[in-house]
Amino acid sequence: MSTTTLNKALIITAIGLTAGTSQAANIILNGSFENTGTAITPDTVGAAWGDTAAAADLTDWTITQNNTLGLSNGGASGPHFSGNGSSVPFTYPTDGDTYLGTSGDGTSILTQSISGVGTGNLTVSFDWAALIANGNSGTASITLDIFQGSDSSGSSIFSGSVTSTDDVQDTWHSASFTPVFNNSTDIFVQLTIEDNMSAGQMAIDNLSIDVAAVPEPSSTALIGLVGIGFIFRRNRKA
C-alpha cells in the first residue's frame, strides 16, 4: 500500500469516528399546553382568552404571575373578541388540543425546571399569534429565557422573543432561534407573555426546546490511527 493510499484510508476512518449521529430530543414538558386535570369549558363570544380555570391548573408548568391566562381549543367554538360591533374568531391550536392565550393589559410568567439535560446545542422554537380588535392598538410579546441551575438566578443561556403590533387574526407565526450551547445538567425555563394591547390577545403553542449532543471524536481510536501512520512511515524509511 502506498503512503498516499494509506493517508486517504486514515482520513476516511477518522472522519467516520468523529462524525457520529446527533439526534435532537425535545426536553420541554407540555409545550403544547394541554391540561389533563381540568376539562376545557367551551368558549363563548367575549371570552377572548379561553378557559381560565384550566390554565390555572396547567400541567407541568408553574405559574408565578397570572394575568388571566386561558386555555382554548380555538376555532368557531373557541375564543372570540367582541369589539366595535364585530365578533372575530381567533384560531385553532397548532399542536395538540389547546393553546395558551392572554386576556390583554398585563404580564403572565410561567416557569419550568428541567434536570438531567445533556451537554449539547439547545434550539428553541414555538408558534405564536396575536389578535388586536379593530380600532384598538398596543403591543404584545412572548419572551423565553433559559438559565443554568434551578432558578432564574443562574447564568443566562438563552433569551429570545417575538413582538406584535399588528392585527393578525387567525394567523399563526413560527419562531425559531439560533442554537445555543449548554453544558449545564439542570436548566430553568421562564416564559413571559407581556400583553399591553388595549383590546386583544396573545397566544402561544407548540413550544419546543430541542437538545442535540455535540459529537466528540473517539480519542483512543484516533491515537491508534496516528500510531499506525507513524509505524508505516518508519517502515518505509527503513
Task: Give your account of this protein's structure.
The chain is an alpha+beta fold and 238 residues long. The chain has two domains: 1-21 and 216-238; 22-214, Jelly Rolls (Sandwich), CATH 2.60.120. Helix content is 17%, strand content 38%. The protein is built from three helices and 14 strands. The protein has helices at 3-19, 52-56, 219-237, and strands spanning 24-26, 62-65, 70-72, 80-83, 86-89, 99-101, 106-114, 120-132, 140-148, 156-164, 173-176, 180-182, 187-195, 200-212. The strands form three sheets. Strands 1, 3, 6, 8, 11, 12 and 14 form a seven-stranded antiparallel beta sheet that branches. The chain has a five-stranded antiparallel beta sheet with strand order 2-7-13-9-10, with no helix packed on it. A hairpin with a 2-residue loop joins strand 4 and strand 5 (86-89). It is globular, with a radius of gyration of 25 Å. The model is unreliable at 8-21, 43-47 and 80-86 (pLDDT under 50).
Give a brief outline of the structure.
The protein is an alpha+beta fold and 238 residues long. The protein contains 3 helices and 14 strands.
